[in-house]
Amino acid sequence: MKMIVTGGAGFIGSNFIFYMREHHPEYELVCVDKLTYAGNMETLAPIMGQPHFQFVRADIADREAMYQLFEAEKPDVVVNFAAESHVDRSIEDPAVFLQTNIMGTQVLLDASRKYGVQRYHQVSTDEVYGDLPLDRPDLFFTEKTPLHASSPYSASKAGADLLCGAYQRTYDMPITISRCSNNYGPYQFPEKLIPLMIANALDGKPLPVYGEGLNVRDWLYVEDHCAAIDLILEKGTVGQVYNIGGHNEKHNIDIVKTVLHILDRPESLITHVTDRKGHDRRYAIDPTFIHDQLGWLPQTRFEDGIQKTVRWYLDNKPWWEKIVSGEYRDYYERMYAHR
Ligand code: NAD
Ligand code: TYD
Hints:
It is built from 13 helices and twelve strands. By secondary structure, the protein is an alpha/beta fold. The protein has a single domain, classed as NAD(P)-binding Rossmann-like Domain (Rossmann fold). Strands 3-2-1-4-5-6-10 form a seven-stranded parallel β-sheet, with helices on both faces. Strands 7-9-11 form a three-stranded mixed β-sheet. Bound molecules: nicotinamide-adenine-dinucleotide and thymidine-5'-diphosphate (TYD). Nicotinamide-adenine-dinucleotide (NAD) binds next to α1, α5, β5 and β7.
């Protein structure tokens, strides 16, 4: 089994590579990553040069490079994690989101078709469904919820999902899609809520909460997401969308307070800043389908996952301190200095 994993130097892709090496050590994994600001070779350093693992630096939207790679490697399976993934950056500059998330997906679909890949899996997000009202806790996203994206990021992911559906139907391709809720865990870039709050709390810097902090996200430990994708690859039905989530809704402000509590830092570090434009109010996945069809259930309780995550950032300071002191510093200034 040879698997191309795109975006494997990023947060979820790298966790997926580690997960697959543990659970399927016989698989040959080819990680394809452009190494944007979000890709980090230090994450993959422990497995570089090891058997059954290859790293290729390339852009998924580069058709020639992808065709050459598929020609040379003849992959059985492609799992596409590669994406521009941060909503705030998409609000600042949408173009690269369309380029990577839509055009890149199209190139991978074309290459998968041309070289007869046995399964193409698209890693998507619950954000394609838009948001839910805060005062209707009875509503959830199911696989049948219409796409209704709010941000340039989620619109680009929705565009990619529609292309996957169209290629599956038109060319009868073996495509599956998963739409997961917010992930947390090791190796997440510190521009996202949880690692940003951990890094700021450790530095004694203000913790910037957008608006009142009452928006709700549905959090899943990254390893549970990886397990779900593995299961979909093994037992999933072609043409199917699978929602992945663990019924773990939290207000942002409560996440921030939990982080402060674990680190024993004062809540006075919390600062309320100008809200995100078009800010989605609530995400909440109904995971009934993947549970009933494939038997998937999350294994990590939030209380344990958040402890493990904070511990990981404490134990791996050099990993994120380099990021926080590098190019990312300019981004942080742009985003938060006058907010
Ligand atoms: P990330 O930003 O941490 O990593 C993205 C990776 O893709 C990086 O290594 C980057 O270098 C690479 N990349 C970007 N553009 C590329 C290109 N043109 N060609 C090749 N590589 C490129 O993102 P993440 O949080 O790990 O998310 C991975 C996937 O999961 C994304 O598709 C995202 O939409 C989806 N997803 C994320 C979450 C979440 O909570 N983080 C939830 C659901 C779905
Ligand atoms: P984020 O981690 O960017 O994920 P997403 O927007 O894809 O859900 O943000 C999670 C939530 O936290 C979202 O409601 C925005 C909020 N947030 C803050 O309040 N402050 C911050 O500095 C960041 C990055 C996010």
